[in-house]
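Mods, move this if it's the wrong board.
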Amino acid sequence: MNEVMVREGDGEPVKIVMERRVKPGARHAFSQWVKELMAAAARSPHHQGSSVFMAGEDDYFILLRFANQAELERWRSSPETVELLGRGDTHATAPGQALVQSGLETWFTIPGRPSPQLPPPRWKMALVTWLALLPQALLLGLIMPTQLPYLVRVSLSTALPVAMLTWVLMPRLTKLLYRWLYAHSTRPAP
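Not the wrong board. Structure tokens:
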């Protein structure tokens, strides 16, 4: 399987994102395989979480998070994992490349457009995120009723901006600022 590695500093958490399209008639076998894959990842003491998302009937995204790049590589190169990943190919195809990401760059992708090999520089990601978050925080500070219990106010003032960033603002800002964000992507990786 082809893979794109996005590496940040050593010691930082990383996640691998595997896109799979289930072969006709293999949905049950694929489902069992995913459970085995998640269980194998969970046996690693450096595994920090897993998620599976469906995008349509037969398209899946499998996310596995590890403590750092070295631990992910150790897990991926183990004989059990190599065999398990190979077996998965009998039930599904990989229409895209597996990505390994470590942070905010997951917000800076555009559906249907391949992710560049390198994420945007952290300062650009931080600046765009702050610019998207600041107006929301200011507005919520003005309109949030002060009579609400503290926990409700804090919950709403964090949940609403996160939802807006994830599903509304960041996809649009990334599309609008794509050339600026990924201006460095044309240079070869170090």
